[in-house]
Design goal:
mainly beta, globular, 1 helix, 22 strands, Jelly Rolls, seven-stranded mixed β-sheet
């Protein structure tokens, strides 16, 4: 992992991620998960799981338990049916984000709804304290509002502008020091991000992921090309690729679409 003494950018290539084809499920694991283990990629700060899943129609993850994790799903395409032991039943579509704070324990299922496969990202983070009451939230963000803008889709419950309502506007409230931003960058567009100055003198973690909208492949990443730059450094990544970024508070990072097609990008800012 990079040091925190300067801005550092370290790529995480798609074909180096853990991956599996179970027939009903095609999945990539950015961090250690299930039978995939890599001590060099075993989470990043409070971020523990970043899976890119494609699930065939009529199948999915059957009812299973979770506890002491913040679990959110970002739907890219298709429809995802969620059911849980708190009584929530919901069909999530493109642009929807669902957050379950598992706390002391829940059971849920996530299955494809309808005749088309569902493509979604499954993301877990560690809560800042144990024993929380289980809660559930959904939010919706349109392609229009994400186009060439950083849209805050998940933020710490204590952050400004965060509502603890089950549904509504603004980011979903997470019980972790993790903020998730999303954008759809058109070709030639660049967005800056300046790391917050809280905790001056301490390092700041971030992770950038380019969603693999062009399809599933086990070889080198294809499709959209994104350049991450800052502090005199730059790295290019493609669909399915990601990059670890670490820098001091107050430093600026730029994310630019240098390819020919749109790029859907997630950016995790981790305290």
């Amino acid at each position: 992992m990079p040091s925190a003494s300067t801005l550092e950018i370290v790529p995480r290539r798609s074909n180096e991620r853990g991956n599996a084809d179970h027939g009903w499920l095609k999945t990539f694991h950015t961090y250690s998960f299930a039978s995939y283990y890599d001590p060099n990629h075993d989470g990043f700060g409070a971020l523990r799981v970043l899976n890119e899943d494609r699930v065939r129609p009529g199948t999915g993850f059957g009812t299973h338990p979770h506890r002491e994790f913040e679990i959110f799903s970002y739907v890219v395409s298709g429809e995802l049916e969620h059911r849980d032991s708190m009584g929530n039943v919901e069909v999530l579509k493109r642009g929807d984000l669902q957050l379950t704070s598992a706390g002391t324990g829940i059971r849920h299922s996530e299955k494809t709804y309808g005749a088309k496969p569902v493509h979604f990202l499954q993301i877990w983070s560690l809560p800042w304290r144990s024993g929380l009451a289980p809660t559930y939230f959904t939010r919706h963000f349109t392609d229009e509002e994400k186009t060439n803008n950083w849209v805050r889709v998940v933020a710490p419950v204590s952050a400004e502008g965060v509502s603890e309502k089950r549904e509504g506007a603004g980011p979903a409230p997470v019980q972790s020091p993790v903020t998730l931003w999303a954008t759809i960058l058109t070709p030639g567009t660049a967005l800056p991000h300046t790391f917050p100055t809280e905790g001056a003198g301490k390092g700041r973690k971030a992770y950038v992921h380019v969603i693999q909208t062009g399809g599933y492949n086990e070889g080198p990443a294809k499709g959209a090309t994104v350049k991450i730059s800052g502090d005199g450094k730059d790295v290019e990544i493609r669909e399915g690729d990601g990059a670890y970024v670490m820098g001091l508070p107050g430093r600026e990072m730029r994310v630019e679409n240098v390819g020919e097609g749109n790029a859907e990008v997630l950016f995790f800012d981790i305290e």
